[in-house]
Amino acid sequence: MSEEPDEAYDTTHRAFLQAFLARPAMTFEDAKPILARIFSIKEERSFLVNDVTEADFRNYVGTLNAALGPLDYEVRSALPQHGGRARVYALVNTTSDALTQLATAHSADEIAFIKRVLDAMFETHNRERAEIMAVRAMDAVQLHRPPLQGGGGGGGGATQRSSVPADESQAGLEGGQSQSVKAITMKQAEDLLASLKEEGWLERSRRGYYSLSPRALMELRNWLVDTYNDPPDEGNPNQWQRIKMCEACREIVTVGQRCSKRRCNCRLHNICVENFFRTQTERKCPVCKEDWTGRNFVGEKADPRVNNRSSGTSNSRRTPRTNNGDDATMLVEDDE
User: Where is this region: Disordered (predicted)?
Assistant: First the structure.
């Protein structure tokens, strides 16, 4: 965060902190009426919503972070990946991963289900050929039952590489799932997914795909890298990793675009594509200098099932394309 405090932490900041605690995330527009009310009480005069400036907001966030840092909390921000330009702010724990926090409100069996959903997102549905990093609602519900001993933890043969502590509240989340972890019902799985969406951990798209929200990505960034990425191979600069950072903003990309050259690891958020190429004379990959086509996707649009369903009603099509010995055929879809 670049916000710098210019005043001491007081009761008004505590009130603003309570607002963050009461909701999973907020934008500047969400914060304006909250700060207007706080300022009205503090100054004993009426403050209108439009009297609150971004400088006021940044100052309050900066003061909060200065006070919360020693307590291992921070207000972080990220741009939404599914459209919209309003930066999202959330209060996150900088040392405890989100699964540990969720364990205080959910049973071990529910946490095991959540971990299976994450494995489905970042292992089963995240391969070199299709970096989907999302799971259809119907597929997520099918994960209500733990796999047989020795099976994949995320469904569909996902490789087990979890590093989540296997304490009582998270039994069976490290390595293969423990036999002590029991199935939950399909109704419980549906309700839990809906609850996680309501709490701001998950997002559900119009196509019915669940993916991690900006708040969850901010909370889980380090855990996702540690859990799903392989140790760096210094002898292989093109090593493929499941969790990648946007070449422009350096935040995790789960929705966006990828270089058309498969062996290139360059990824960009959709909004970062616009900003990055705005001043460029040519749309070239910033890493390998291949033409940036805008037709190679990260997220649910990378799912061949999305392309197949769209082929009869949109400009989506199967286009032969050769990229320096990479794929002979690649599914592409015109931008919506």
Answer: 144-179, 299-336
